[in-house]
Structures are given as structure tokens and as C-alpha cells.
Amino acid sequence: MKDRTNHKIIDCTIRDGGLVNNWDFSVEFVQYLYKCLNEAGVDYMEIGYKNSPKLLKGSESAGPWRFLDDDFVRDVIQNKLATKLSALVDIGRVDENDILPREKSPLDLIRVACYIHEIDKALELVQLFHDRGYETTLNIMALSNVKEGQLDEAFEMISDSVVDVVYIVDSYGSLMPNDIHCLVTKFRKHLQKKRIGAHMHNNLQLGFANTLEAANHGVELLDCSVYGMGRAAGNCPTELLLAQLKNVKYSVGPVLDMIENYMIPLREKEEWGYIIPYMITGMLDEHPRSAMAFRRSAAKDKVLQFYNMLTVPDVKG
Amino acid sequence: MKDRTNHKIIDCTIRDGGLVNNWDFSVEFVQYLYKCLNEAGVDYMEIGYKNSPKLLKGSESAGPWRFLDDDFVRDVIQNKLATKLSALVDIGRVDENDILPREKSPLDLIRVACYIHEIDKALELVQLFHDRGYETTLNIMALSNVKEGQLDEAFEMISDSVVDVVYIVDSYGSLMPNDIHCLVTKFRKHLQKKRIGAHMHNNLQLGFANTLEAANHGVELLDCSVYGMGRAAGNCPTELLLAQLKNVKYSVGPVLDMIENYMIPLREKEEWGYIIPYMITGMLDEHPRSAMAFRRSAAKDKVLQFYNMLTVPDVKG
Predict the structure, then answer these.
(1) Which residues in chain A are closer than 8 Å to B262, comparing Cβ atoms?
(2) CA neighbor of A174 nearest in space, from B261, B226, B240, B116
């Protein structure tokens, strides 16, 4: 296995896992996770979204990690340890006035998620966060559906920007390790001055394998979540990355502690992981929303019916 | 993705899955599986073990797929379709007198599982099955624990034998895609006249990824099981292989039918898959028997305790 000393692990359990349980994590849960991740040597914990509730209607019932408030975060994590804190924002959902200068905020890193056609708006936000002192990443979603020409144009804009890291995001969990290899090669060729990150989903049981493939080809920032918790099929599991990255700074024990005390009981109540409707949207390279709706229906285990709905013209209607 | 026209899929649901439920599959289950696998284009169905109950004491309670009887199999599969039938034998557990000439047997393929120090005995059995007209494979288990020198010696014996296919078996589910690439390269170099097979386990969520890696480097026979059913963490899922191998002869729908009607209800009663104690034996490159015992204990979800038992000298005791 290649040298892994430049790798950084970003645990997204609260942010991406919040998409499963509407961010209904207790303060104790988040504090225990922070302690465990720090002991395990994890580099960053993504503690939620820094979107504005004013700009995202209908989310009033969501837990506090959906709309992070700096004072609240400082109360929760009173003693910051080696593990840094990260937040994600979406285009059009962030209020500039909510973003304090970094020295007044508990956050270290702000990541901007965008689709390929939003790169210009995303880079404006990146510039703002950069100017206020934060580390920044640009997370390009749904790359499996992006055409070659669109990507070339994006590379030019990104090269000229201040962003620190550019992410390959396999939003639909549809990419194979070979696809990851091709994408990483392309990103490294066109973005020689940027670091690269990878955020993989587990629809085809390839979340970990694709993250390893990315790491083996020079991707430095590796996203994951404890016990794989994340929307639909979930993410690359943090415990697998910790166990396999050959780096003395990481240890898996503290994350097993978190799994034992919090994740196994939570998985009894909430659902994520390798579940056939998510496998089907992954193989069809589609957003999992149809599968999520199907899992909420009485027919949730009628997997052949779901497959036919998405693939047979007559059933599709 | 590479050309896949030479690939053959061997579904091991009954044989390897039997290790989960003591081969307690109904005749209807096995008949429905055979119908579905045939419609899906799967090349072989491994319908059980052809060991002798006289040579394996204490297994009297096992279902009939543990000790296949040719007349029984012929009764179950009265109309053989395109999907061929396979059985596995273990060294020292097979009675030569049970092996009919192929033209009198419903079986097409007999596979011999062995550890590296049993290759000579395994090749004697292979010769016997070959002489009676069967296709044969040699399945070398626990390759992650085999030393270079042992393997070189084995390659010589295998090259001189009549065996058709030699299998790379990741018994402990501990190998990474890079390891698979190295092993496949070595096997192909030293066994140029043999075809290669791969049987992977899912302890580290790499069953499918490792099978793909093997397939991409020229491995032709690919083992799997429906919904991943197999001992401990289970196998590469058949449905993922069918969905991703770019070959018009395969279709995933019939296997989704099997999952909907039989596998999802069965998974409610029996346990296999990505379960942390199996992940731990995989990362430690150990047989899963300690994890299987732990999962039967009251402490089954105390995953940190289990990890410490296997890794901390004081706890190991």
C-alpha cells in the first residue's frame, strides 16, 4: 500500500447521517463522537450544515446540526482537541451574515457542495469563506452524470480560484473503482495546484473500495462516516478506513467504542446501508430519492416491482 | 470495463449459505433459486457439499444439501436447464464410492477445497473426479496466510495436474484489491494453462470490489451468492455481479425476484453480512470462528470488548 502520510480523514457522520434522522442527534451523542474521533486520530469532524433556516423553508423540525449556530457549537465542543471541525453549505442556502471571521468561530473548514452548473456561484462562496480565514473545499456532486466538456470548463475556473481542495463526489453511488481511477487521473492532471478529496456512497458496496482506490492514486482528503451512516446506502465506513490506512496516527478502537455505544442502537431505529432499492438506483446511476420514497411505502421490500418501475417502459408509464 | 465474455458466474448460495443455517433450505427454496439463476443467466449453481456423513460426525442435524445424494438432487432438479450444477468437497470428508460417473449424476462440476499443505491430497481427488468425467476446480483456502515458497511448490504440482480451474479463496475476507491484483498476476504467470477463479468474502465490504478486481485482471470463474448469503460476513452478492458484468447474457431481475420472495424473509431469521466482529477478524486476517462464537454470546454487540480480546495482550490472557 502506498504512503499515506498526506491523507486526512473527514468524518461526516453528523452531517450526512443527519439526512437519515433529520439531524436528531443529542448533544451527548455529538460530544461522545467528537471524543472518539479525536482519540482515533481522525483529522476533521463535519458537525453539520451551515445553511440558514431562513433560506430553507420546511425544515423547522430538523435538529440543530442542520443549521449550525457558532455559539451553540462552541457550547457543545467546549474544549477543542486535535480534531478540527467542518461544516457544509449548499448554494443558495447560506446567509453571508452567519459566517463569522474564523478566529471567532469554532469551525475550521467550510465546504461548498454544488452541481457542475453552479461552479461559478460555489467559487464566489469559497472566496468569501477564504477571505474570512477558513480552509475551503469545493465538492462537485453527481460527477457520474457530468459530461467531459462541462468538466474542462470547470477545471479552468477552479484553477484560478483560491479553493484548497476539490472533491470528487459519487452522489449516486454508481461509480466503479475503474471510474474513480479515471476521474482522479483527470482531476490531478487539470488541477495540479489543488489537493483532491473523495466522497463515496455505498449503493454497490463500493464506498470503501472506491475510497481506497482514490487514496492509492493520490487523493488526500477521504470522507467517511461511522458505521457508514449516511443518506440511503450511506458512506465509506470510518472504521474500515482507520483499520486499513497504514498510518500510525490512526487507531480503530475508539470508533468501535462509538459503534458499540451509539451506532448499533441507532441502527435499530434508523435505516441506511446496503438495501436493494438503493442498490438499484446505484446501478441505474440515479438519485436515490425514488428508492427513499419506496422504502417509506408499504411495498418497501418488493424489490423486483421497484426495479420494474424504474426500467420497464410499461410499468414506468 | 474489460471484455467479460469468458466470465462464468458460480452462485454458492446453498453451499456457502448453508454454513449460516445448517443447510436448512426447503426443496421449494432450492427449486425457486435454480429457476431464478437460470433465468438470470448464471452459469453454475453450487447446490451443496458432496461430503459423506460417515466421515463427518456430529452433522446429523444438517439439511440434505450438506451431504448431497445424487438421486435426491435429481428429484429436486427434475429438468436441468442451462445452469449447470456444482458441489464442493473437503479433503478427508469424501467417500469415493459416492461419486457416480458423470453421465449418471446430475452434477457437472466438483470442486475440491483445501489448505496449501493439502494440495497433494486435493489433486488426487481432482484426478478421481476428472476420470469420472466431471469438470474440476481446486479451491486454495486461506491464501492470505500462505508463504511465497509454499505457493511456488503448489504451482508446480498444479501445473502437472488435470485440474481445469484454480481458485484464489480469500477465506478470512482480509485481502485488499491490491493484494488480489498481486495474487492474480502470480497465479496467471505460474499457471498459464489453467483458468483462474475467485471466491471472496465480505468482512471489509470488499467482496464485490475484489471480485471485480479479479475479473478485470483475467480471472474467469467468479463466485458469489444471492444477497451475499454466506458464513459470517458472507460473499460477493450475485445481484451486484449480474448488474455490473457487461455481458448481455446476464440479467439481474430474476435474482431480485429471489431476494424479494426468499432472501429478505430469510435474513430476518438468520444473520450474515457486514457485522463488526466479522470486520474485526477480517482486519486481523483471522478465521471468523471467534467472531461467530461471540455473536452467539450475550455480549454479541460489545464490539470494543471483542476487539480488545483479540488484540490487547492482557485481555487475550
Answers:
(1) none
(2) B240
pLDDT of A273-296, one tens digit each?
999 999 999 999 999 999 999 999
Q: Which residues make Cβ contacts (< 8 Å) with residue B16, sequence separation at least 6? A: B46, B225, B229, B230, B231, B234, B235
Instruction: Report which of B59, B47, B53, B52 is spatially closest to residue B87, judged by C-alpha positions.
Output: B47
How far, in Å, CA of A308 to CA of A59, rounded?
33
For the beta carbon of residue A178, count every other beta carbon within 10 angstroms: 14
Residue A101, burial from CB neighbour count under 10 angstroms (0-12, 13-18, 19+):
exposed
Determine which of A175, A208, A255, A256 to mutate to test the interface with B (most B C-beta atoms within 10 Å). A256
Q: Which residues contact A294 (CB under 8 A, 6 or more apart)?
A: A277, A300, A306, A309
Nearest residue of chain B to residue A206 (CA atoms):
B209
H-helix or E-strand containing A311?
helix A303-311
Q: What is the pLDDT of residues A151-194, one digit of tens each?
A: 999 999 999 999 999 999 999 999 999 999 999 999 999 999 99
Continuous segment of H or E residues that includes residue A184: helix A177-190
Spell out the residues 6+ positions from residue A297 whose beta carbon is closer than 8 angstroms to its own. Answer: none
Q: Are B99 and B70 in contact (CB under 8 A)?
A: no
Task: For residue A301, count other CB atoms closer than 10 A to its CB.
Answer: 17
Cα–Cα distance for residue pair B161/B126, rounded to 1 Å? 8
The whole-angstrom separation of Cα B309 and Cα B299 is 12
C-alpha cell at A57: 423553508
A310 in B contact zone (CB under 8 Å) = no
Angle, alpha carbons B138-B141-B147 (nearest 5°): 110
Q: Cβ contact (<8 Å) for B205 and A207?
A: yes
Cα nearest neighbour of B259 on chain A: A303
Buried b (16+ CB within 10 A) or exposed e, A261-292: bbbbebbeeebbbbbbbbbbbbbbbbebebbb
Quick check: B274 and A273 CB within 8 A? yes
Does B3 score more than 60 pLDDT?
no
User: Could you read off the pLDDT of A231-284 as tens digits, one per residue?
Assistant: 999 999 999 999 998 788 999 999 999 999 999 999 999 999 999 999 999 999
Closest CA–CA distance from residue B218 to any residue of chain A (Å): 15
ipTM exceeds 0.90, yes or no:
yes
Cβ-Cβ contacts under 8 Å, B208 against chain A: 204-206, 209
What stretch(es) of chain B map to CATH 3.20.20.70? 8-269
A8-269 CATH? 3.20.20.70
Interface test with A, best of B39, B144, B206 (most A CBs within 10 A): B206
- What residue spans of chain B are helical by DSSP H? 13-21, 27-40, 70-76, 119-131, 148-159, 177-190, 207-216, 238-244, 253-258, 264-269, 276-283, 289-295, 303-311, 313-316
